[in-house]
Amino acid sequence: MTRGGAGSADAVPEVSTAPDTAAASTIPSSLFIRFLPVRRSSQYRNARRAAPPEKVGSSSHADRSLTLAAYRAGMTWTRILPGLAAVAAGIAFTPAADAATGPLVQPLATSAADQQAVFDYWTPARIAALTQPSSDNPPKSAADGAPWTTANAVTKTVGRLFYTDHGEDASCTATVVDSANHSTIVTAGHCVNDTDLIGEHNAWNAHLMFVPGYHDGQAPYGKFAARYGVADATWLENDQQNGAKFDTYDQAFAVLGKNTEGKTVQDAVGSAQKIGFDLPGDAEVTQFGYPRAASDPAREGLPEYIGERLAYCTGQARHWTGTPDTPDSPDQWGTACVMGGGSSGGPRLRDFDAGTGLGTVVGDNTHAGFFAADGTPCDSGKTDGCTRFLAGPQFSRAVTEPLYAAAEKQS
């Protein structure tokens, strides 16, 4: 099933958060690593602690930010801290044992003052600090990673998503999808809501700002603060250990405010990608991102791997099932790709037209898996002689469509 914009529908009740515990403690950004090959084992946790900053993309995810029993009961929560300040504090919550499932809509920068605070926060210096050093490596392009250089719809609809995760600034990738409110982007769950390093202190990320068409510090279509975040309640239970249970839910939407010219993001860029649900994963795909690292040393430090320019990978998607000791969710797909941290949340497009830059978003980048030459998953922790694939959930009617519907109903 493929969806473009949908017509008006009954409003989804706004949900406010009610903090149960104190703000989460700050974790150094050097400990937050995305896109590790396999996860959740002690080997994985140790690798995350030892890995260099932003070296590889995510399989660390999660957040525990709402009292889900209240959501199941249909209650409206009262925010203890006002607006953006509550989110910026990294509020953590204790999950209910009988947690509900389905979309949760989290207010972020809903007022004009809160949105201006987001813009003020992201100074040129802060953004520049998320750019990795350049190298003297000569240009290198292949199907598993190359710069995207054609000016078309993809350079308008895909952009860089900046945010603060437990006190540390970071960036992901997100995509404008056709929606009734003209203000909806899709990204990874952990780009909107995350836990700390050990899978605790779930909190909604703060200072979310989307820059469509970002390149070299420029914002050609303006900047957009996130007014709402939308994630599945199950994602907020993620403990960073059980990928088989939680990786399906590493997907989220954000509803944006307007830029300084008073335009919605879809109107400002003049385009949007389609979104598809329950489409077969076994297809030719093109995946985009703003990586700050490359798994190939020969491409490390090139402009498209330091966070400044859009990169892509293209090829046949393969089904990633995890390994016997670390099984993954049954819906993880992706193609061979060297894009590392920062490409989280980027779109996996099928039926992509390289001339127009349009396709159908059928999934998002969340983590890596390694395959041996015979097509079987490599053992946990093994990379020699293996090919790295960039995987993520295949969008579905069961999980993704309700999130999308909840997002596009927000104004």
From TrEMBL:
Return the InterPro entries for the record.
Glutamyl_endopeptidase (IPR050966), Peptidase_S1_PA (IPR009003), Peptidase_S1_PA_chymotrypsin (IPR043504), TRYPSIN_HIS (IPR018114)
Highest taxon in the source lineage: Bacteria
Q: Can the keyword RNA-binding be found in this entry's annotation?
A: no
Which Gene3D superfamilies would you find in this protein's record? Trypsin-like serine proteases
Q: Does the keyword Signal apply?
A: yes
Give the start-end ranges of region Disordered: 1-20
What does the UniProt keyword field contain?
Signal
Entry-linked PROSITE patterns: TRYPSIN_HIS
What is the name listed in the Swiss-Prot or TrEMBL entry for this protein?
A: Trypsin
Q: Which organism is it from?
A: Amycolatopsis ultiminotia
Q: What is the lineage of its organism?
A: Bacteria, Bacillati, Actinomycetota, Actinomycetes, Pseudonocardiales
